[in-house]
């Protein structure tokens, strides 16, 4: 559990399932020389000594007006395909959530920014010989465009795009009557809004928080690493529509740079939250406390 943040009356905490280093090649158009230009503000919290990208797989837990909301549910308690050993889920993760006050019967709402395996894994658990919703009294919000796209895609094709647990991490939510398909612009009270940030996946959603005169954006995977704010053209290997993903980042930079809006990266390591600020002829991410 890492330190939390406040946005008006909203409390945001992180529960980390896994931290990892991935090679720069995850951003195929990036180069070591170009990355070196950003080392002074990335190292050591987001960049390893050898130039690897440091990321976290984590859940963001929100307390909003008496509601407890979970944003994305990490990898979860399931066997992953070969090649994913580097990101195996942590069996103690649910205990960490419970210790933070977000146990199985304490969560009111789960928001899935998209349906990649490392964002839906703890949606369900294997119990009494079947996959059942982990959070027994929660509603699960899923983008309609995201769900309908992947449901119409053959399983063997989905697997190549990191969507290989739809049947056990998503469909049981509908069978239990706990899933709700939503559109961009969907609001949770007066505080949360799901905003369209496509490209990484077809119906990707980010979460905008507005409370007490303050605003924050929780990114989901419209950006994986903070360097992508300075280099929005650096798409990732996991982006389905690379051009659209880059366009989405450019739009967000134009919208949020120098505005004071708090940017919270779903995969950013602590402090994980900061602001987009103009720095010469570019915009960079300035983490809180820097």
Report the order of strands and helices. Answer: EEHHEEHEHEEEHHHHEEEEEHHEEE
Shape: globular
Number of helices: 10
Sheet with most strands = 7 strands, mixed
How would you classify the helix and strand content by structural class?
alpha+beta
Task: Report the span from N to C terminus.
Answer: 21 Å
Helix content, binned percent: 10-25%
Strand order across the largest sheet: 1-2-3-4-5-8-9
Low-confidence stretches: none
Proportion of residues in β-strands = 25-35%
Report the count of strand segments: 16
Q: What is the residue-averaged pLDDT?
A: 95
What is the rounded Rg? 18 Å
Describe what you observe in this structure:
The longest helix has 15 residues, at 242-256. 21% of the residues lie in helices and 32% in strands. It has 290 residues and is an alpha+beta fold. It contains ten helices and 16 strands. It starts with a strand and ends with a strand. A hairpin with an 8-residue loop joins strand 11 (192-196) and strand 12 (205-211). It has helices at residues 32-36, 39-42, 93-99, 117-120, 144-151, 155-159, 166-169, 171-175, 227-230, 242-256, and strands at 2-7, 10-22, 53-64, 67-71, 109-112, 124-127, 130-133, 139-143, 179-182, 187-188, 192-196, 205-211, 214-218, 262-264, 273-279, 282-287. The radius of gyration is 18 Å and the shape is globular. A seven-stranded mixed β-sheet has the order 1-2-3-4-5-8-9. The mean pLDDT is 95. 46% of the residues are buried.
């Amino acid at each position: 559990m890492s330190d939390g943040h406040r946005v008006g009356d909203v409390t945001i905490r992180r529960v980390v399932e896994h931290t990892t280093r991935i090679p720069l090649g995850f951003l195929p158009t990036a180069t070591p020389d170009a990355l070196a230009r950003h080392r002074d503000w990335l190292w050591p919290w987001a960049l390893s000594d050898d130039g690897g990208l440091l990321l976290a797989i984590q859940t963001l837990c929100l307390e909003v007006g008496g509601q407890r909301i979970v944003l994305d549910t990490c990898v979860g308690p399931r066997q992953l395909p070969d090649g994913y050993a580097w990101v195996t889920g942590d069996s103690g993760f649910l205990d960490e959530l419970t210790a933070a006050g977000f146990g199985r019967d304490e969560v009111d709402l789960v928001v899935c920014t998209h349906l990649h395996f490392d964002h839906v894994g703890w949606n369900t658990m294997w119990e009494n010989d079947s996959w059942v919703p982990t959070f027994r009294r929660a509603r699960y919000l899923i983008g309609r465009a995201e769900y309908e796209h992947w449901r119409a895609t053959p399983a063997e094709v989905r697997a190549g795009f990191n969507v290989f647990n739809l049947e056990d991490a998503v469909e049981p939510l509908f069978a239990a009557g706990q899933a709700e398909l939503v559109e961009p612009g969907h609001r949770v009270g007066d505080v949360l809004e799901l905003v369209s940030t496509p490209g990484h996946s077809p119906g990707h959603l980010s979460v905008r928080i507005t409370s007490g005169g303050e605003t924050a954006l929780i990114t989901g995977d419209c950006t994986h690493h903070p360097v992508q704010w300075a280099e929005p053209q650096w798409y990732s290997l996991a982006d389905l529509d690379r051009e659209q993903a880059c366009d989405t980042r450019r739009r967000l930079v134009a919208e949020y740079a120098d505005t004071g809006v708090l940017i919270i990266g779903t995969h950013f390591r602590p402090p994980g939250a900061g602001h987009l600020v103009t720095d010469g002829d570019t915009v960079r991410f300035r983490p809180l406390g820097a």
